[in-house]
Amino acid sequence: MSTAQVASSLEIGKEMVVGYDGSEASLQAVRWAARLAARLGEPLHVVRSWIISTAPRPASATTGYVPPLTDFEAAVLERLRRDVDRLGLTCEVHLHAVHGSAGRRMVEASEKASAIVVGNRGAGGFMGLRMGSTAEQIVRNAHCPVVVVPVDADDAGDPVDAELS
């Protein structure tokens, strides 16, 4: 039996953290945060929180076999790496996969972060809400400044990126 533990918290300094869940809004939040981090000359921590039902299926998963959580964590990190690599970010980037609810993990990260950046809506929830439940939880409970990048479903990447040009 494996004694390996999955990450359930972030080890960061007083640096910028951005949440990513695979949604267009979170993708735009990563772009926005990366441009700001590059201008400030500080690293960016891209965080993807997960539970088994939201994690990509690990390669080790087969019919009748549920892999250990460490395999799910590795699959989350691999997908995160692939998604972030596509963006061609110009700042120093650290990728993190943390097990647990996104709102809780980001609020915990806010205790050490210089700022938290999130998109206004995530991968789940109800269309038409101005701000997603996770973003609202973070705004209400964070211990540092929070930036909610206002991206509508029909927005393209250029307008948000242009704000920091």
Keywords:
Rossmann fold, single chain, 5-stranded parallel β-sheet, 5 helices, disordered C terminus, 165 residues, alpha/beta, globular
Largest sheet: 5 strands, parallel
Number of beta strands: 5
CATH level 1 class label? Alpha Beta
Q: Could you name the CATH homologous superfamily?
A: HUPs
Which CATH architecture? 3-Layer(aba) Sandwich
How far the N terminus sits from the C terminus, by CA atoms, comes to: 51 Å
Rg, alpha carbons: 16 Å
Kindly identify the CATH topology: Rossmann fold
Low-confidence stretches: 155-165
Encode the helix/strand succession as letters: EHEHEHEHEH
Task: Work out the helix count.
Answer: 5
What proportion of the residues form beta strands (DSSP E)?
15-25%
Helix/strand structural class: alpha/beta
How would you explain this protein's 3D organization?
α4 links the parallel β4 and β5. The relative contact order is 0.24. The protein has helices at residues 24-40, 69-85, 102-109, 133-141, 157-162, and strands at residues 16-19, 44-50, 93-99, 115-119, 146-149. It has one domain (16-162): HUPs (Rossmann fold). The protein is built from five helices and five strands; from the N terminus they run βαβαβαβαβα. The protein has a five-stranded parallel beta sheet with strand order 3-2-1-4-5, with helices on both faces. α3 runs parallel beside α4. The longest helix has 17 residues, at 24-40. It is globular. It has 165 residues and is an alpha/beta fold.
